[in-house]
Structures are given as C-alpha cells and as structure tokens.
Amino acid sequence: MRNAYSPLPELNLLKEFEERLGPVCYSDGFELREYGADAGLHTWSDHPAFLSRFLPFAQANGSGSDYALWRCDQRTDLASLPVVFVGDEGDLYVIARNLRELFRLLALDSEPMSDFGFLGAGSGDGGHSEGHREFLDWLHQHFGLGPPEDVDALWAERAALDDQFRAWAGNFVERGAR
Fold first, then answer.
1. Which residues contact 54 (CB under 8 A, 6 or more apart)?
2. Number of neighbours of residue 154 by Cβ within 10 angstroms
C-alpha cells in the first residue's frame, strides 16, 4: 500500500474510479483531494487536540467546503468513522455516520446544503453529472449500495452522532466563532 492514496481501502477504490473516469464529475461538487491536506480546520481552532482528530480527504462543493473523517474514538477501521462537513460558510457538523453512508449520499448527485444535508437528487438544473451513472454502477459493484430511498430518515439517524460531535467541538470552538 506504499503508493496508495490513503490507508482506507474504500477511498483507494474511489480514487481508482476517479482516475479511470478522468476529468468528469460523478457527484455534484465532490472531488477527492490530497488525503490529510488542510481543510481549513485551523480557522475553527488551532488546538492540537482538535486538529489531530480530523482526516480531510475531499472537496464537498464548488465553493470551498470539505469532508473529513472525525476520529471520535480509537477504532482502527477508519472507514467506520463519522464524516464531518467543514463548510466554507461557517458550518461544521457530522454529515454521515461513516464513509459508506457518505458514498450513498454522493449517489444523490447533489451538493450538501448547510445544516440540511442533501436535499435531493440531481444537480441544480435537474440533470445528473456526466459520470453519475458510472458512479452508481461502481457503488453497487463494490459495496452493493445505491442512493438512500429516504434521505430524511438517513439524515435523522445521524443526529445523535452530530450532537456528540458538536458537544466535543464546543470544547475547542466558540459558537459563532470562525
């Protein structure tokens, strides 16, 4: 795994898919970035105990938001860690309970909308990204998954984890500060 994109097999598979697809969008606003690169978290807090708990890996939208895994505990399966949305407009919250759940949300082909998560399928003009069908095929082939049938239910299921995250982050970040 010396030349792997990341220590997560799931992200490595997605990186291979992205490279094979070429410069084609497969989920609105999403693009893998350098694994572990700066995601602007230092603008929330420069405390080492805060910063060391995140593993940034992707751009979330076209305006500068990112995704990062949150090391909420000592688990070794990094793909099972919650995924945090690091918003360019002051949002910081859990968007998915784990990486595979994020992949399902990406299958909606919709940028996340602030604290409302993913509001619906398709890009703003009602169509899908050029590589969307290929992504759906990839997601099913590798994980047996597809888009969530009930986005609201999925969004509600992550609420307790988001509350836990916000309570933890509150130890480092002042409400409204950024």
1. 39, 41, 68, 69, 70, 71, 84, 86
2. 18
| Secondary structure of residue 9 in the 3-state scheme | helix
pLDDT in tens, 76-116: 999 999 999 998 888 899 999 999 999 999 999 988 865 55
Tokens for 124? 């703003």
Structure tokens, 82: 């919650």
The rounded distance, in Å, linking the Cα atoms of 57 and 70 is 11
Smallest CA-to-CA distance from 93 within 71, 127, 67 is with: 67
Q: How far is CA 78 from CA 5, 38, 94, 123, 143, in A?
A: 14, 18, 15, 30, 16
Measured in degrees and rounded to the nearest 5, phi and psi for residue 85 equal -90, 120
If you count them, how many residues does the chain have? 178
Q: What b/e sequence results for 105-120 when a residue is b if at least 16 CB atoms lie within 10 Å of its CB, and e otherwise?
A: bbbbbbbbeeeebbee
